[in-house]
Design brief:
The protein is α+β, with helices and mostly antiparallel strands. The protein has 7 helices and 7 strands; from the N terminus they run βααααβαβαββββα. The strands form 2 sheets. Strands 4-5-6-7 form a 4-stranded antiparallel sheet, sandwiched between helices. It has a 3-stranded antiparallel sheet with strand order 1-3-2. Helix 1 crosses helix 3.
Length: 294
C-alpha cells in the first residue's frame, strides 16, 4: 500500500474490534435458543470439568466479568513465542486462576473471548473462522482473517509508538488462537456496514446489556456490556457504545450511538501516550457526534 491513498476501503487490522463479531455470534445463538446467557459455559464445552472457574456464565464472559484480569496476571493470549492454552487446551479452564470471583468485577479479558470463540465452534459444529465467514462475510467485502503476515493490500503500519515491537511482531503470536479475539482485517466501510446490521438486531443485542448500578458510565472503560462499553458523560446526554482495539503499530475503534449511527476509525499507528490519548480521541468523537445530532 505504500504510496497509495488511504480511504474507507483500505485494509487495516481490526485487532480487538474483532470481539464485536464474537459477541454478536453468541447473541445470535442466544436469540436462536441454542445458548442461554445465564448458564455456565461448561454446558457448551465438551470435556471441561464442571468446577470453578469453569462455572462462569456466558453473560459474564461477554461482559468481561468472568474473573480474568490481564492487568493482574499476564495475558495468556499474547505471551510472546508461547502457545496459549485457549483454544487448544480448554480443559485448563477448570484450573485457571481467576483474579476475582465471577460476577464480582469487570476487567477486560482476551482469554474470556477466546473461550466464547470455542463455544461458537462447539455449538455450531463449525470452526470459528468458517462460522464467521458463512454468517457475516458477503461477496465483494474486504473481510479477511489475519494469519500473521501482511496481506498484499494491507496498509503500511507505523511502529514509532509500539514499544519494542517492530514490523516483524506478527511472528511472536499465534494468530489462529487469536481468531475470536483480534483476528480480523478489512476496511472501515465494510466494518461500519456490518456493525450497523448487528445493532439493528432484536434483543439481546450488542447494546442491550444492563448497566450495573455501581457502574460509572461517565468514565471510559468502566461499563462493559456485550463487548461494547457504555459511555455517557452526563445524565441527559446521548449514550454511546464504544469498542477499541490495538495491535503493534495499529489501532481501531467503533462507536455506535443511541440514534443508530456507527462511527469507525482504523489507524496505521498508535497514540504516543497510550490510553490517555485514546480517551481524548473518544471524547473528541463524542463531541462531534453530539454536535452532528443537534
Amino acid at each position: 500500500m505504500r504510496g497509495e491513498r488511504v480511504g474507507p476501503s483500505t485494509r487495516f487490522r481490526y485487532a480487538s474490534v474483532t470481539k464485536l463479531f464474537t459477541a454478536d455470534a453468541i447473541l445470535r445463538m442466544v436469540r436462536g435458543g441454542h445458548i442461554k446467557l445465564h448458564e455456565s459455559v461448561v454446558n457448551y464445552l465438551d470435556g471441561v470439568p464442571a468446577k470453578p472457574p469453569s462455572q462462569v456464565t456466558i453473560k459474564q464472559l461477554l461482559m468481561h466479568s468472568a474473573g480474568f484480569d490481564r492487568v493482574r496476571s499476564l495475558d495468556a493470549m499474547f505471551h510472546i513465542n508461547k502457545k496459549p492454552w485457549c483454544p487448544y487446551e480448554l480443559e485448563r479452564l477448570a484450573s485457571r486462576k481467576l483474579a476475582y470471583k465471577p460476577g464480582e468485577k469487570q476487567a477486560y479479558s482476551n482469554e474470556g473471548y477466546c473461550v466464547l470463540g470455542a463455544v461458537i465452534e462447539q455449538v455450531s459444529g463449525s470452526d470459528y473462522r468458517t462460522y464467521i465467514e458463512d454468517n457475516y462475510f458477503k461477496s465483494g467485502q474486504s473481510f479477511r482473517f489475519v494469519d500473521g503476515e501482511y496481506l498484499p493490500d494491507e496498509v503500511d503500519y507505523d511502529f514509532r509508538f509500539a514499544g519494542f515491537y517492530g514490523k516483524g511482531y506478527q511472528g511472536y503470536f499465534d494468530f489462529e488462537a487469536l481468531s475470536a479475539v483480534a483476528g480480523l482485517s478489512g476496511s472501515a466501510k465494510d466494518l461500519a456496514e456490518v456493525v450497523r446490521r448487528m445493532i439493528q438486531s432484536e434483543a439481546p443485542g450488542l447494546r442491550s446489556a444492563p448497566v450495573e448500578p455501581e457502574c460509572r458510565v461517565d468514565q471510559h472503560y468502566q461499563c462493559y456490556g456485550y463487548a461494547f462499553y457504555r459511555y455517557q458523560p452526563g445524565e441527559n446526554r446521548m449514550p454511546v457504545f464504544i469498542h477499541g482495539g490495538a495491535l503493534p503499530g495499529s489501532s481501531a475503534a467503533v462507536v455506535a450511538d443511541s440514534e443508530g449511527g456507527v462511527f469507525v476509525w482504523l489507524g496505521a499507528g498508535e497514540p504516543p501516550d497510550g490510553t490517555h490519548g485514546k480517551r481524548r480521541f473518544y471524547d473528541y468523537v463524542y463531541k462531534r457526534l453530539e454536535s452532528f445530532y443537534r
